[in-house]
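Students often ask what a holo structure prediction actually looks like on paper. The answer is less mysterious than it sounds. You provide the chain, you provide the ligand, and the output is a string of discrete structure tokens encoding the 3D arrangement of the protein together with adenine.
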Amino acid sequence: MDIFVFTIFPEMFEGPLNTSIMQKARERGLVSIQMVDYRLYAPSKHKNVDDSPYGGGAGMVIKPEPVYYALEDRLQGDYGKVLLMTPQGEKFSQEMAKELAGEERLSIICGHYEGFDERIRKLAHQEVSIGDYVLTGGEIPAVVIIDAVSRLIPGVLGEEESARFDSHYDGLLEHPQYTRPREFRGMSVPDVLLSGNHEEIRRWRRKESLRRTLLRRPDLLDRAKLCREDEVLVAEILNEERTEK
Ligand code: ADE
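The corresponding structure tokens follow.
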């Protein structure tokens, strides 16, 4: 996948995208990420990318020319899917990450401190927010999206780290996990995980995944597709939780 990020702070991407799994994915050519500083495309002598709003008022607005010129110059007509980072956008989700992972090219436009001139929005196929809070710019949201999408590209994660078992992958939260030691400060690993009975372990994990989702995120459970076995497990959980109280 080719990703182009249009930003006036390319340095904000250096740490997160040059470390760990993202670094390996880039080195192995599975994901190519290029940061484009659209300030370089500002037409004025002082290279300003923003100006005061027409109609007056506080704050500054990002000018359309630097953003348009940067996309036109760097993408050469092949824009791929263009995303605009804004708290006004559609809320990012694992579902959206899966859809975006199927794209060959993503172009991500980031603002900073201020609003976009409305004409910049015309460049975008989709406006995306990472949550209902306001950050100083779209750079951190862009990193979040690049990370979540890249790890779904085949080959980026090894079998060990596979996304198949992630929380949210199938609409449920992940089951509890344990590793050595078997006992730690009076807390012990559930016996079933030491039993070697694969069928019982699978059933326990599914049940605990359903329990976690039911107790922490019932909204997710409403939307998840449950099979007959899941329904039996949910009934068991509800019974257990009732007798707990
Ligand atoms: N820019 C500022 N805040 C943002 C958010 N929550 N999501 C996407 N872009 C943003």
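The first strand starts at residue 2 and ends at 7.
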